[in-house]
Each structure stands twice: as structure tokens, then as C-alpha cells.
Amino acid sequence: MDGQLINPDILRHLPHGRFLLTAHHGEARTGLLTPWVAPCSDDPVLLTVSVPRGSLVEPLIRDSRRFALGVPSPDDRLISRRFHSALERDEDPFVGLAMHDLPNDGLIPAACDHWIECVLSGHLAPESGHRVYLGLVVATSLPAASPRKRSA
Q1: Whole-model pTM?
Q2: Position 127 in a domain
Q3: Of 116, 124, 130, 138, which one is least surrounded by beta carbons within 10 A?
Q4: What is the pLDDT along the chain (152 residues), one digit of tens a residue?
């Protein structure tokens, strides 16, 4: 296909946000900021997250079979500084941060207003610089909506 037909700027027009993806296994724990999160099913509730190949979080997701996503405030510079890189880092980025108490032992700093916990449901390894992980949502910071009763 002719590359001239594809304008990569189209991605800026698609809905996206800024998410903190975290995972831990044993004593190891890490996270990274990513805009690449998207819902892909509502029954069951599934989402996809794209992770750069070689990220420290990849083996933790694989080994623990779970991950969490937080939604940090856009102006939170501490989260931006601690989790900016997807690759090697020397220090634990969670040290000294207040944390949410998630029901399935996920890791999300209290600075994130909302969070989602997922169990790994699968992954894709396309020929690109990223892998795509599929997460079954098992808990969120927002309670499930109660069904509305119809009035007679």
C-alpha cells in the first residue's frame, strides 16, 4: 500500500487519554505512562493497552497475569517524572507515594483519581514496536451502575 495515502496525524483525532499502566510480581513493580488504552468489549468488559516492546512492565504483566490502569491528573508532574520512561530505570518509582487500596492487590498511586484493575486475557504481538495486551476488567474506582427501574 502506498504510504502517501496514510497521514499519521489522524491518530491525534482519535479519542485517547493519559493512563498510568502498572504491574507487579514478587518484589518487582513498575509502571509507565501511555495514551494507548481502548475499550474493546462491554460484555464482558475488556480493554486493550499497547506497551512498547522491551518495557520493564511486560514480564510483570506476563508473570502476574494482571495489570492496573490509573488516570492521573493532567498537571501531575510527580507522576509524569516517575513514570515517563517505559524502559530501564534504577529506582522503584512507587517509593514514597501514597497508594490506593485496590481490591485485587493492584498498584495505583493515590494521585490517580480513577483506576481500573484487569486480569490478563490475552496479547497480540504485531510486527511493530509495541505489544497489545487484552485485559478483563475485574474492578474499578467507579461503582457499577445500578439498573434503572422503569416507571409504570
Answers
A1: 0.85
A2: yes
A3: 124
A4: 455 777 778 777 777 789 999 999 999 999 999 999 999 999 999 999 999 998 999 999 999 999 999 999 888 999 988 998 755 667 889 999 999 999 999 999 999 989 999 999 999 999 999 999 999 999 999 766 655 555 54
Closest CA to 86 of 52, 119, 112: 52
CA angle 60, 90, 135 (to 5 degrees): 20
Query: Phi and psi at residue 54, in whole multiples of 5°?
Result: 85, 0
What is the residue whose three cell numbers read 478483563?
136
How many distinct structural domains can be found in the chain? 1
**Residue from 37, 93, 96, 91 nearest 67 by CA:** 37
**49 within a domain of the structure (yes/no):** yes
71 domain residue, yes or no: yes
Position 8 scores a pLDDT of 77
Q: Angle at Cα 58 formed by Cα 23 and Cα 41, nearest 5°?
A: 75
Specify whether the CB–CB gap between 60 and 51 falls below 8 A. Answer: no
What is the grid cell recorded at 97?
Answer: 507515594
Domain CATH code at residue 82: 2.30.110.10
Residue 50 lies in a domain: yes
Q: Which domain holds residue 88?
A: 14-140
